[in-house]
Amino acid sequence: MQIVRRSLCLLNLNLKNGVNVCGSFSSVRWKSEIYSDVDAIAKRISESSSIVVMSGAGLSTASGIPDFRSPTTGIYANLEKFKLPYPEAIFELEYFKTNPGAFNIWAKEYFPGINFLPNKGHYFIKLLEEKGKLSKYFTQNIDGLERLAGVDPSKICEAHGTFSSASCTSCQEPYPMEDLKSELMSDLTPVCKKCNGFVKPDIVFFGENLPKRFFDDAEFDCLFSDLLICVGTSLEVYPFAGIVDLPRHNTARLLINNEIVGSFGSRPNDTGLLGDIQKNIEALCDKLGWSDDLTEIQLENEIKIMKNQK
Ligand code: CNA
After folding, report:
1. Catalytic annotation on 249?
2. Does ligand 1 lie within 6 Å of residue 255's CB atom?
3. Distance from the alpha carbon of residue 56 to the mean position of ligand 1, in angstroms
4. Who has the most CB within 10 Å: 12, 95, 99, 134?
């Protein structure tokens, strides 16, 4: 039954008109083992010239932002302070329209550009770009850390939106971002001046459409990619999770995550680096001879961030 639901989702991603609304399904576990030779994986990266990277909340946990599903640290394991009826409610449109409080508490704490810095995972993506290997970077994250790491915005597809604009959830009237930010920081509930509806940043909640660009880019870039890297996601949220199955059957795929997710392990050229993302990225860069480049990119950018904050 799960396989059928998952296949339908993928079909709809391909057709563009079907499941273009953000929703969560249980993913299918195909295999418990995956080919993990870091030398072979590094060789594959060095030979690739058109890499698609897809990421989720796990990429940002090392920056201090909790993901959804990690057993003790994820948001789902720490729901008390949000007083939610069920975990997904915090990012669910219908729930927000009557109970904006939980999301607003989360948004105050994790508002982009205030408390959190990119980590080695984000800088690895920037490094792939600098090496001329990054075709496109798709992320579910709304924390803006890849932009802060300096990845060229034209290479980024923020499938679940960003905090760069805001609007009313009832009448869609745009709302000044600076007002929203200062109200959230003062524990006030941003309310539409036109209709009194609750206002939120233009990030994609469960039940909302993804940007059209996501569907076009995902199909195109995956078709012409020679490697897909999937990092820090449980692949539970569709249609984003469907990206992983868009490359051709023989195209290499690399999973960098705590555990095997989605269909990884079912294709002939699947590989995985399981365990901590930071450690695996460091090991990979070591094999690629990129360790100094990674450190340099991170240091240069952190100096830039500090200068901008002054
Ligand atoms: P998820 O379902 O919580 O999955 C995260 C995955 O990353 C899990 O498989 C974890 O095991 C793995 N993981 C976490 N930390 C590490 C680590 N240090 N090393 C290795 N693996 C790790 O998160 P998804 O992104 O898959 O879920 C999609 C939701 C979460 C999207 O709608 C996001 O908008 C939403 N979200 C985003 C953020 C953010 O922007 N940083 C934070 C929390 C939730």
Report:
1. no
2. no
3. 5
4. 134
Where does residue 165 fall: left (phi above 0), alpha (psi -120 to 50 degrees), or beta otherwise?
A: beta
| Number of residues written out for the chain | 310
Residue 140: CB within 6 Å of ligand 1? yes
CB 253 within 8 A of CB 247: yes
Q: What is the DSSP letter of 198?
A: B
pLDDT at position 20 is 65
Compute the CA torsion angle 146, 148, 149, 153 (nearest 10 deg).
60
Which residues are CB-neighbours of 44 under 8 A, at least 6 positions away? Answer: 227, 252, 254, 271
pLDDT given for residue 24 in this prediction:
65
SS (H, E, C) 85-117: CCHHHHHEHHHHHHCCHHHHHHHHHHCCCCCCC
Kindly report the protein residue whose alpha carbon is nearest to atom 26 of ligand 1.
233
User: What confidence score (pLDDT) does residue 29 get?
Assistant: 46
Residue 79 tokens read as 């729901």
Q: How many helices and strands in the chain, by DSSP H and E?
A: 10, 11
* pTM reported for the whole predicted model: 0.90
